[in-house]
Write a structure and sequence with these properties.
Blueprint lengths: L1 H53 L6 H10 L3 H17 L6 H9 L1 H12 L3 H13 L9 H9 L6 H14 L2 H14 L5 H9 L5 H10 L6 H14 L4 H9 L5 H13 L6 H8 L7 H10 L6 H10 L5 H13 L8 H4 L4 H8 L2 H5 L21
Length: about 375
């Protein structure tokens, strides 16, 4: 009797699960049907306004009110995003004249949405910021208010929201707002990796000269991680700050990573006053300073002269693998003759010969023709960056 009750109970549970699955399936199907209708209405309204613009007429005011109500819901914003992307694909990735005008007209709507999504949950705010960055509205929007609101997004808890908002600010191209966003990120001490910050700054669409000047005005107030991101950004953008970088490289009180970044800077931009400092680093034989030696060995590849060559030859005998590797690569990059390196290649140090065998010998062996050409993109890089 007990087994029969268990079987009946099991059958009842299975039947309930089947009924639930059927009801859930039709619920989803009905919801998708309703969403398709809503999406169709939104697409029809937007396409109608674009057609008015093609005929030389203006966008209706009530359409702006409709967009404010509709795009305040994230699902509708997703549909609008896809629709605008499709419009651009039809124009081979470019903005057609009517699409440019449409973006200009809906600027007040974008400002309204920026305030709405600022108060929403983090993922919705992140999507809105990504929407701004994706469509590169900087080409059509000059509203400082939108950028001011995006600066406030730096206070959001979500990393995705902060990243998307910062990238949107870099696309909008205001040096003042981007510098304020960097200061807000640093002040709030919220996680934002320095390499991510550097990459975003490099994608800035405005004046890099103005942005660099604003960042340097606040440089002393930044944390070391933010300072490192700014230094790396400057290294990839401008060679006009050699004297200032030399001060950082020479300052023993500065953070080690900042000094290493300054050394990499002089591997990208040759600056003769930096030569003695680089030579001193490269000739340092203290084990704890191996990182300075390794980075300096890379930077010296760009500096001609026997003093730099002698320093690199000395570094190639280091007990640290990264120092030997960077010194070997720099000697190869200097385009020296094979005879100049016979003492290194033919020496008694087995580890040096092994290091040279992978770098110097292929480049300098008389039977292999032209020597190795130094890759400029690798200047200033050490093993573990």
């Amino acid at each position: 009797m007990r087994s029969e009750v268990l079987l009946l109970g099991y059958g009842a549970v299975c039947l309930c699960m089947m009924v639930f699955n059927v009801v859930y399936y039709f619920t989803l199907k009905n919801r998708d049907r309703r969403m398709e209708k809503k999406n169709g209405r939104l697409e029809a309204r937007v396409e109608g306004q674009l057609e008015r613009l093609r005929r030389g007429r203006e966008v209706e005011y009530r359409h702006l009110s409709y967009l404010r109500r509709t795009l305040s819901r994230i699902n509708n914003l997703i549909v609008f995003d896809r629709m605008m992307a499709q419009q651009r694909r039809e124009e081979s990735g470019e903005f057609s004249p009517e699409l440019k005008e449409y973006y200009r007209v809906i600027q007040p709507v974008i400002l309204y949405l920026a305030m709405v999504y600022r108060e929403r949950e983090d993922m919705q705010a992140a999507y809105f910021a990504w929407f701004l960055a994706k469509h590169k509205l900087n080409r059509h929007m000059e509203l400082d208010s939108v950028q001011e609101i995006l600066v406030e997004y730096m206070n959001q808890e979500s990393l995705y929201c902060r990243v998307n908002a910062f990238q949107a600010l870099c696309c909008l191209g205001s040096p003042r707002c981007v510098s304020r966003a960097v200061a807000a990120l640093d002040r709030n001490q919220k996680f934002f990796h320095n390499k991510l910050l550097t990459d975003s700054l490099l994608a800035f669409t405005g004046s890099h000269k103005q942005l660099t000047a604003l960042l340097l005005e606040q440089f002393g107030y930044y944390s070391d991680q933010t300072k490192l991101a700014v230094l790396n950004y400057i290294r990839f953008r401008s060679g006009d700050y050699c004297e200032w970088m030399l001060g950082i490289m020479n300052d023993p009180e500065e953070d080690k990573e900042l000094r290493l970044s300054a050394i990499r800077y002089f591997g990208c931009y040759v600056y003769e006053p930096a030569r003695p400092v680089l030579l001193a680093f490269a000739q340092d034989r203290r084990a704890l300073n191996w990182e300075y030696v390794a980075v300096s060995a890379t930077a010296l590849a760009a500096y001609p002269g026997e003093d730099a060559t002698d320093a690199l030859v000395g570094a190639i005998y280091s007990s640290n693998w990264y120092v030997r590797s960077n010194a070997a690569a720099s000697l190869t990059a200097r385009g020296l003759e094979y005879d100049d390196l016979v003492s290194v290649v033919g020496g008694s140090d087995r580890y040096v010969r092994e290091m040279c065998g992978g770098g110097l010998l292929p480049a300098f062996h008389p039977g292999l023709g032209a020597g190795y050409r130094f890759d400029q993109s690798q200047r200033g890089r050490l093993g573990p960056d």
